[in-house]
Amino acid sequence: MDGLSWIEQAPDAVARTAPPVRMGILSDLQDFAASAMGRVENALDESIAAAESEGCPPRLAEAMRYTVFPGGARIRPRLSLAVAWACGDDDPRAAAGAGASIELMHCASLVHDDLPCFDDADRRRGKPTVHLAYGEPLAVLVGDALIVMAFETLVRCVSRKPRRLGALVSIVGRSTGASGGITAGQAWECEPVIETALYHRAKTGSLFAAATMAGAAAAGASPHAWSSLGGMIGEAYQVADDIRDVAGNPELLGKPVGRDEALMRPSACRELGLKGAVAKLNGLVEAAIASIPECPRATELRLLIRREASRFLPEDIIRLAA
Amino acid sequence: MDGLSWIEQAPDAVARTAPPVRMGILSDLQDFAASAMGRVENALDESIAAAESEGCPPRLAEAMRYTVFPGGARIRPRLSLAVAWACGDDDPRAAAGAGASIELMHCASLVHDDLPCFDDADRRRGKPTVHLAYGEPLAVLVGDALIVMAFETLVRCVSRKPRRLGALVSIVGRSTGASGGITAGQAWECEPVIETALYHRAKTGSLFAAATMAGAAAAGASPHAWSSLGGMIGEAYQVADDIRDVAGNPELLGKPVGRDEALMRPSACRELGLKGAVAKLNGLVEAAIASIPECPRATELRLLIRREASRFLPEDIIRLAA
Questions:
Q1: Mutate which of A47, A115, A179, A263 to test chain B, going by most B C-beta atoms within 10 A?
Q2: DSSP string of B245-278?
Q3: Does position B66 have pLDDT exceeding 80, yes or no?
Q4: Taking CB atoms and an 8 Å cutoff, what residues of chain A touch B187?
Q5: Which of B102, B105, B109, B141 to mutate against chain A (most A CBs within 10 Å)?
């Protein structure tokens, strides 16, 4: 867990920080929030179970489950669900599958990024990394298998609305591939010169943008208008991560702090200082909320985003930066 | 190059070993064979070029091209094209894209299989392996990027017939994933006990089966009837590879021989002896040809398969096994 609690606030907690809203909205929000995490976990379990069928080597199956469960905050797939919900959610199964596809890509990238040839990390989500638990060969293969599984999940989840498949495969593919996707993001670390904005957009922003776009596409809405929202939330999330990397408590984060500095990675904190980075984070959140396109539940979605973003940083870090 | 020359025979060479056929068929065959390799290379180039656009780190782009070009015999994508052609080929762009998708998956698996944690290979297709040329991090990322690119290629290539996308994504996904796909095949090497048939079917047969099925699906035919043909050609190809691994000339193969023995991999030669393995190879080829479903150019396809299979092994090995 990384300390985020996307959309799980009780309605009264929301009401304290947001403008007054009618009770029906808060009740809808409550219903949605209560079901979101369960829908994500079920969709992920269904994808893994499909891959575990005949022909899957037992240790590979075990390592895939180890990688995906238990998860972190599942912020990306819940963002997909939130956007699909805001867009009317006419096919909840498609929305859950789209979110699961994004999360599987995220898990795949974590396993590969943790490998000895990259971060050489020993802990992830509070337990040994996959290559330490299952060996490096299976860690490489788990990543490969989860990438493939992400696309298979899309086919299965849109079986009732097959016309949505093309957009979903394009969105997920673009956000993970060599052209500005998370693979490109990681590959920037292998370049002699790194352009910070491009690096962050690819490494983090791309998958967040895909989360919002895929949520819209899964609900039959035009995905392009939703790219900015995800991209800016992703950038804000990355800035918050940079800040926690410098100022955070390793026990809260579940992974070592100071990695960016140790690996000489681009960091908003190193470029702007702690105070500047916090100001940047706040600006990004406001811009993200302002970018939400017209949709059936735009008000609800604005509430959700504001509330979640207020929890990007622990109180003690905000005080530190004040 | 691995010594195979799929469907590039001059018509007179075909006529010498096959039953007499009418000239129109041979002329069609000639036309098809003359264009097949070019269509594969163009489709691959289009996929790489799309990924190289804005946002791709330069060294990643270079490493992807290094991995995919120059290729081997492109036996899988040309098999896709041959099946699509046999089925009427009503959308040549879809067929070329389907073949390219399969070949990109094949290239991705080669890069990852060559990594130090697997085969630790230093040569591939006559030049240094990707991790030696570009470092291990980029080799991992090239594999990831090519897997994603394979699915993006499918979306692009079926833009005129979007209803075919679901079948194609399913076929390519299943053949590469954890449930009997090439990832499973490689993962069997990490298990304490390996079941040879399952291992070979996953590691080699699955992608060959996908090549024939994707060729059929790209041409609007039902893919399932085409699974056996690809599976058996794949198994024959693997048996031929086992035989070459034991008896072949390393200069002809472009990679070290004796790797299976050194790595204690399952091998038809170790199980059946050289003579038994050659008999198995011949039986598989006959069964493959007999499995070809009814389709507009079944006669032509039978000719192609028989001719190609006769070149699976160099003459000196066949003499050695006689």
A1: A179
A2: HHH--HHHHTS-SSHHHHHT---HHHHHHHHHHH
A3: yes
A4: 57, 59-60, 137-138, 141, 145
A5: B141
CB atoms within 10 A of CB B116: 15
* Residues A243-252: tens digit of each pLDDT: 887 776 555 4
Peptide bond into B70 cis (omega under 30): yes
| Cα separations in angstroms, A216 against A102, A207, A237 | 13, 14, 21
Q: How far is CA B1 from CA B44, B106, B242, in A?
A: 17, 14, 17
Chain A residues in contact with B137 (beta carbon < 8 A): 117-118, 186-187, 189-190
Q: Which residue of A has its CA nearest to B56?
A: A179
Alpha helix locations (H) across chain A? 11-17, 23-51, 58-68, 75-86, 92-113, 130-134, 136-157, 165-176, 182-188, 196-200, 206-218, 227-247, 250-253, 259-263, 268-290, 298-309, 315-321
Angle (nearest 5°) at CA A226 between A221 and A229: 150
pLDDT number for residue B197 = 75
Helix (H, G, I), strand (E, B) or coil at A121: coil
pLDDT for A249: 56
ipTM greater than 0.85: yes
For chain B, which domains are there? 33-321 (1.10.600.10)
Nearest to A74 by CA among A130, A112, A35: A35
Smallest CA–CA separation between A11 and chain B, in Å? 40
- In B, which residues are within 8 Å of A111 by CB distance? none
> Could you tell me the pLDDT band of residue B181, with boundaries at 50, 70 and 90?
very high
